[in-house]
Amino acid sequence: MSEIAGQTGLRAGASAVVNESYSFACMRCGHGWEQSYEIEHHKDAAGHEFVLYVADGKVVPSPLSKPECHHCDSHVVRIMRPGRVASARDAAHRPSRVPPPAGPVEVPAAADGIDGEEREHHHWHLSDLLHPFQRKAS
């Protein structure tokens, strides 16, 4: 972390400030969160450009470099577009609409001449299953 991490408020000399938001999901513990950042574009004394990521008024490391789960400290974190965690939470709290259970299923009468009783006692062989795939002699 840089020596300016933890400072609050916008730093003087920013040539541009861009707001970006990301969703994060920990692949270890499943914790999900979202964070918005102000990305300040600066130039140092030598004229080299650099950016500062500011979250909640404090300079923080880039969330794209090595994100860390605040729940379990894992670095196996997936970064997604904003709103993904919120939409997943909303979906989890919505009552699900489960269709009523289906009734019993009846097997239709066979058109190939095998009645229901024969069908129940028929022993299938690999050749029976492969029959549709066999080549016809020409």
Structure notes:
By secondary structure, the protein is of the alpha+beta class. It contains three helices and five strands. The longest helix is centred in the middle third of the chain and has 10 residues, at 84-93.
Outline of the structure:
This protein has helices spanning 84-93, 116-121, 126-130; strands at residues 16-26, 32-43, 49-55, 58-60, 77-80. It is α+β, with helices and mostly antiparallel strands and 138 residues long.
Descriptive labels:
alpha+beta, disordered N terminus, elongated, 138 residues
Q: Which strands sit side by side, in order, in the main sheet?
A: 4-3-2-1-5
Low-confidence sequence ranges: 1-9
Q: Please bin the fraction of helical residues.
A: 10-25%
**Biggest β-sheet: count, sense, barrel?**
5 strands, antiparallel
Order of helices and strands: EEEEEHHH
Give the rounded overall mean pLDDT.
76
Total helical segments: 3
Q: How much is the radius of gyration in Å?
A: 31 Å
Q: Percent of residues in beta strands?
A: 25-35%
Write the layout of secondary structure elements.
Layout: E1 16-26, E2 32-43, E3 49-55, E4 58-60, E5 77-80, H1 84-93, H2 116-121, H3 126-130
Antiparallel strand pairs: 1-2, 1-5, 2-3, 3-4
